[in-house]
Amino acid sequence: MGPASSEARADRADDVLALARLAAEPESVHAILAWLTRRTGGLAALIGPTGTVLATPEPDPGPETLATAATAASATVGPRRRGTPSAVLGGEGGHAVHLARLGHADAAGGDEPPYLTVVGPDDPRCGVLLADAARTLALCWRLEEAERARRRVESAEAHSREAVLHLLMVGGVPAAQRIAGALGPALPALARVYVIECPVRRRREIAARIDQVARGRAWIVPCPVRSNHLIALVPPESQGEPKRADGLARLMVQRVPECRIGTSAEHPLRDTAVGYEQAIHALAVARGAPQRYAGFGRHTDTTALASPEGRLWARELLGPCLRYVPPRRADPGPQELLGTLGSWLSFGGAANRHLKIHRNTLAARIRLISDLLGLDIGHSLAGQSAAWLALRLHSAPPSTAETPAETPAETPATPAAPALAPAPAALDALLSSPAAELWARAQFGPLDEAGPAAVPETVRAWLRADARLPAAATALGISLPGARKRLARAEEVLGRSLLRAPSAKYELWLALRASGSL
Length: 518
Hints:
Blueprint: H1 3-23, H2 28-40, E1 43-47, E2 53-55, H3 63-75, H4 77-82, E3 86-90, E4 96-101, E5 115-120, H5 126-169, H6 173-183, E6 190-197, H7 203-213, E7 219-222, E8 229-234, H8 247-255, E9 260-263, E10 267-268, H9 272-286, E11 293-295, H10 308-322, H11 334-347, H12 351-355, H13 359-373, H14 381-395, H15 424-431, H16 434-450, H17 454-464, H18 469-476, H19 480-494, H20 505-514
Parallel strand pairs: 9-11
Antiparallel strand pairs: 1-2, 1-5, 3-4, 4-5, 6-8, 6-9, 6-10, 7-8
């Protein structure tokens, strides 16, 4: 055995060791192809069963690289048809094309394995190098394919869970239950909503911990609007022993100190949107609380306004939208428009992320809804508050005091002209009832009692300025940071979110209107 043979064996051993090291790198397929390109002096590429270029040394190859890879792709047609595992062919421009198949086709009928190709070198030793590289590359390619498949499945499940949350938010409970039943766990009939504010990079880890603490019974969804929020629906039996609302929250902030958690009261599934708003309000308090969590402890809903007259007013106001017939089948219909309106009132400009639509599409829908309702939904807090109340009353279940003949849903109502529904007098009449006045006093009562007077004065100025903080600060003659600090203090007193959506600004504006202060 001569020196040349010993040298060749040593070179091959070095090549195998180099391939083993490259296989451990994160982008191992690209790394091996780049190494082969340098080692052989020709372009290395991975060609799929249909002649598609699957990988090259560069993640984003240029035109010249793609042209050379296309030469390799055309050269694989014949060998693939004949089932040839390896070959050396003459390519375009007189360049040799070396081929080596990455393994064998799956006996169960799976996809054919790709070919490793090298275009350019005319070296007889290239065949041995490709054979060694093909074995390592086959494993790396299968691992990367498995990882891509895992990510696709994970993404599909995340989108399905997000769809369940969206359906619950818009009242589509039966459809949400069917999807959730296929994914697991089943949705609880009664649950608290938890909103967990946490570092973005740790959302997956924290979601896993919540699932563990809740014994696998929580329905957990990354918030589609805020990247640092998790939303969890937790049944009562999973909230700790004893069954206290703060059981899970206390455990979570102990294990993950970076978390801030807001929890709602217990709600049936049809009221998930209400529970989410309550949890957001509680989170505003939790940000300043030493224990880093808070529950929603105030009863400030609009039940007092859900009289037959209130429900009829809501139906008349929303009537043009409910009766809307889109000019094209692909355009949004009444329910989709109402869903867009609810999302806009909850999230503002971030509603496009919630609805998965372009911001220009969102803007067009808001203009359409404004025209239909005769309200300025885009900029006026008065219009937004009226629409918010109408949505709440329209979706509220009939009270037990209402007879079937009194229920607006069953009473044939004469269609009202769009201009009549949003008339200030109609809303003022609704807000002038004794029940509405009591409700309005309850909204501002904690602020007026807590003092100092500057805090409720700032909230009122902020509402009169359409919830625009700079305008409120100017009206009060104070600095912008000073006005923001006072509103943050108001959040603590009220236990409600003001500066971040969903905000209590609509309820407070209506309360201010009911008190005659606007």
